[in-house]
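Hi support team,

I'm opening this ticket because the web form for multi-chain structure prediction keeps timing out on my end. I have pasted the exact lines I submitted so you can reproduce it. The total is 540 residues across two entries, so I didn't expect it to be a heavy job. Is there a limit I'm missing, or should I split the entries? Thanks in advance, R.K.
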Amino acid sequence: MDEKFDCIIVGAGVAGLAAAMILARNNLKFLLIEKGDFPGSKNVSGGVLWGSDLAKLVPNYWDEDAGWDRFINHRRLTFMDNQSAFSVDFKSSHFNETPYTGVVVLRSKFDRWLAGKVQEAIDASEYAMDSFIAPNILVEEILMENGNAVGIRTGEDRFYSDSVIIAEGVNNLLTRQVGLQDTYVPADHILTGIKEIIRFDERVLEDRFQLNGRSGMSNEFVGFSTDGVEGGGFLYTNKNTISLGLVLGLKDLREKEKAPYDILNTFKQHPVISDMIRGGEVVEYSAHVVSSGDKRIIPKRLCKGGLLVCGEAANLLMNSGKAIQGMDYAMRSGILAAEAIVNAKKTSDFGEASMQRYQAALEDSYIMKDINNFQDAVHLLHDPVMTQKVPNLLCDFGRNFFSIKNEPTRKARQMLGESVKKYSSYWELMKVGVKGAKAL
Amino acid sequence: MKLLTLSEQLGLISYRNQAKSEIKPHIMVDTGICNSVCPHKCTTYVCPAKCYTMDEQGMVHFQVEDCIECGTCMYACDQGAISWEFPDPEIGRGVTWNYG
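Hello R.K., no limit was hit. The queue was backed up. Here is the completed structure from your submission:
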């Protein structure tokens, strides 16, 4: 492989694969490098892929019995204290229509499947014999000349290209190496995600979570689930397993001196969770850090001459309270990065000004618009009033409201007032309420 | 449902190059820093794979074999004790997820 590629993509996760698909379709010659044994083998997510961009990459993917696990038509947000769970629950057959607006995926399976689709696109392109997906290669350095990326180095081997897309994920060592992110990133806007994959008989899973065919449920948890640490819990139904886990603010974890696996076990023992997972068998335990969605961790510049950064390498992830979005941001930013490369190839201009088209497209996309618009929501979700006091008072109110005691019943307003006073105050809630109304 | 201990949880993970007796560690920890100036020694509890342990004398020790490449320690350590790389595919350790 002496000749030069149009583009080298580092990392075959969602962002890298999305970029590769666009490059293959536009007949560019590229090299997609993955450090794992196969695409997806190093990747962990919650994980729901929100939105409908997947249909752009794999039209009619819903006709296939491979790759993705279930589509989401049932959402639930649960507030917890140590004994109770108070949920907002929404299920609608409206979400049964394709293109789906969210699918649950397991990355080791999904990314590998998507890589197969990219290979098909390569095979159909003009560079069927010259573009490659290359696993088991660790990129150690981005080669720069006069401020422009000109290739990569792995061990003693060098590969050259007109452009490089960094899609290496949140532990973005290469992004730091080229100076787009500080060498040391502090724990402030980083969370540690940990989860278990729990297997069930498929019939048991369908009955327990009221699933029909390939429909699925996503459930997020706030409150007791994290044992006083910032963050939340999640449960997603896969085909015959569930993903049950937590995301825990790393700085808070450090300060409160808690171990993530201990919190996960406490969460699993909560009566409501233990009823959900009864009879299941843990088949995998995993962990990975994620960024919080706080804008302060996103690099100000995501390009240089011949160089673009996308997906979690650019810390594009956000939990606004409505959903944890990361994989959809990766997919869209990968598409936008590849489109900028396709355009650069047309004009034979890979200079920084040309690459800035990507940055502009990203700013103009729903990704940066949402990240900019929902910063208050991100901060609110890390406010202890929201993560601790609100769940406690809601559960206290729920317990009173739903208790029938054969004695004169107080009005709901009075009960709510008592719960508010017990765990918080009207003033504190009003502040959070105003913030919340503004944020969402 | 029976809870798993951390070693049972880690026992479910497929690590790379398990047959190799010697591997090249992808994380280097200067435990001298942990054991002299670090006020919290937080890696001993935040690491999801408990690669960092504390002995009875309160000294921090590190082993790379159980590392699942999550990245937690790289951010949690604010003392500059950790140098973090990805494992070499041929001679390093690290994970291959079955589900992910």
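A quick check on our side: The mean pLDDT of chain B is 96. Let us know if the file doesn't open in your viewer.
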